[in-house]
Amino acid sequence: MPGPFAPITGGRVSEVVNQEAALCKSSSCLPTSNKENKVDKFCKDYEDFISVSDAHKTFISNWEQEKKKTEQPDEKPYKMLLRCLWTSFRYDFFKAFFSKLTWSVLVIFSIYYFVFDILDFINKRDKEIPINRGEYYEFYLCGGFFAAMFVLSIGIQQMGIYSSILGSKVKAALTTEIYKKMIVRDPYGSKADVVALVAKDVEKLAEACLSLQYLWSGIFETLAALAVTLILLGATILPGVALMAIFMPLQYYMGMVVAYRKKDLAKVSDKRISLMEEIMRSIKLIKIYGWEASFFKNLNEIRAEESRLVDGINNYKSTILGLIFCLPPMLCVVIFGTKEAMGEIESVVVFTAMSFFNTLRVPFSKLPKSLRDVLDALSSMERIQAFLLEPELSVAEKKNDAPSNHQGITFRNACLSYGMDGAILLKYVNLNIPQGALMMVAGSVASGKSNLLKSILGDMTMRSGQCLTPASKAYVPQTPWTALGTVRDNIVFGLPFDEAFYRKVIFACALEPDLKMMPLGDQTWIGERGGNLSGGQKQRIALARAAYSRAKLYVLDSPLSAVDMYTCQHIFKLCIKDIMIAGGGTVVLATHQTELFYMSDHLVVMKENNVVYNDKYSFKGIKHLFPNFCGDEVAESTQAGSSQKVEHPAPSDPHTDPQDILEHPEHGVKVTHDALVPLKRHPPMTPSPSTKKIITKPHAESEGSIYWWYIQKIGVCLFTTATLIFIIGQIFRVYSDNWVSVWTKRKYEPERTADSFYAGLYGLLVFVFLCMSFLRAFFYYRTGKVGAMNIHDAAFGAALKAPMHFFHVTPVGKLLAFFSKDVEIIDDQLVDNILMFQIMFWIFIMACGVVAYNLVFFLVIVAGLAVVYIYTVYNYIQASVPLMRAAEESGSHVVAHTAETLSGLAVVRAFRMEDRFVNENVGLQAKSAVATFSIANLSLWLAYRVDLIGALLVLGCCLLAVVDTSMDAPIAGLIVSNSFQILLFFSIMSRLMGDFHDNMKSVNMARELCDLEAEQEPEQEVEPPAQWPSKGEIRFEGVVMPYLPGQPPTLKGINFSIGEGEKIGVVGRTGAGKSSLIVALYRLAEISEGSIHVDNINCANVNLHKLRSSMAIIPQEPVMFSGTLRYNLDPFNQHTDEALWDVLRKCLLGPVIESNKDGLNTKVELMGSNFSLGTQQLICLARAMLNPSRILLLDEATAALDSDTNAAVQQVLQKHFSHRTIFTIAHRLDTIIDSDRILVMNAGVVAEFDTPHNLLEDHDSIFHELCMNTGKAQFEVLAARARALANERK
Question: What's this model's pTM, rounded to 2 decimal places?
Answer without folding.
Answer: 0.73
